[in-house]
Amino acid sequence: MRRDAALGYGLPVQPVLSSFLRVVLTAWVALLLGGLTPVAQGVLPDEVASLANSVAGWTVPTAALVWWLARSRVEAALGGAVAFVALTLGYSVVSDWRGEQFDPTFWATIGIVAGPVIGLAAHALRRPAREAAVGAGVLSGVLVGEAVYGLTVIADTTSPVFWWICAAAGVILLGAMCARLARPGAIVLACGTSAAVAGAFVVAYRLLGGVGA
User: Fold this and answer.
1) Which of 49, 101, 141, 167 is 20 to 30 A (C-alpha) from 177?
2) Residue 197: exposed, middle, or buried by beta-carbon count in 10 A (0-12, 13-18, 19+)?
3) Each residue of 194-207: pLDDT tens digit?
4) Which pLDDT belongs to residue 12?
5) Residues 137 and 158 in one domain
6) What is the mean pLDDT of the chain?
7) Which pLDDT tens digit goes with each residue over 57-83?
8) pLDDT band at residue 13 using 50, 70 and 90 as cut-offs
9) By the 8 A CB rule, do 139 and 59 touch?
10) Same domain, 16 and 88
11) Do 146 and 200 reside in the same domain of the chain?
């Protein structure tokens, strides 16, 4: 038996340790970014102030961290959940320091459910055509869906600038992936997934009352 077998299950110690450290790094960076969010709410110009109070503001850093650090689907799912929860906890801690009470329970729960989906979608961008198409569709759908919600449901209380930026980011991501895939089936899959997720996002957010929007 190899000397690097872990816990008697034949799992190499070094890869397991490396995975653990990548997830920990994901958590720490997300915690820091979450802590910066309450500060950003007070300094961002009105046109983009919604960034610090939007699902996109959590989705983009979570996806970026997982895309950068995760090396497997398990890491991606775990990293997505950890990042989303850490962002929420960082926001809560700094808000409390600033004298603004924020209960992280709701968004942490959402993060445990949605975080793995975002993580897997981000990791899928590195995978073969079908997985990449679905991953791009999910991420694009979240961005476009929130943009639609912002431009319709809460248009009277927020600036449209950030929502148009969200929409553009989602479309650019989808377009770039479609150009990379260059396969009709994968392109249809990516666009269909994006449309389905965007629609589901708007419906779900309406049901939740746009909490946090």
Assistant:
1) 49
2) buried
3) 999 999 999 988 88
4) 59
5) yes
6) 88
7) 889 999 999 999 999 999 999 999 999
8) low
9) yes
10) yes
11) yes
Residues spanned by the domain of 65: 11-124
Overall average pLDDT of the 27-33 stretch = 95
Do residue 39 and residue 108 come from a single domain? Answer: yes
Q: Answer whether residue 4 is part of any domain.
A: no
Distance between CA atoms of 108 and 118, rounded to whole angstroms?
14
Sequence-ordered list of residues with C-beta below 8 angstroms from that of 113, at least 6 positions apart, any chain = none
Contact present, 144 and 198 (Cβ < 8 Å): yes
Dihedral angle sign, alpha carbons of residues 95, 97, 101, 104: positive
Residue that finishes a domain, picked among 92, 124, 156:
124
In a domain, 69, yes or no: yes
Structural domain ending residue among the three candidates 89, 124, 159 = 124
Q: Is 0.90 topped by the overall pTM?
A: no
State residue 139's pLDDT score. Answer: 98
Domains identified in the chain, total number: 2
Q: What is the 3-state secondary structure (H, E, C) of 88-123?
A: HHHHHHHHHHCCCCCCCHHHHHHHHHHHHHHHHHHH
| CA quadruple 197, 107, 125, 168: dihedral sign | positive
- Residue 23 to residues 74, 91, 121, 127, Cα–Cα distance (Å): 10, 19, 16, 20
Same domain, 137 and 67: no
Higher-pLDDT residue of 191 and 158 is 191
Task: Give CA torsion, residues 43, 112, 133, 171, to 10 deg.
Answer: -20
Residue 152 lies in a domain: yes
Specify whether 174 is located in the same domain as 103: no
Residue where the block lists tokens 């979240």: 142
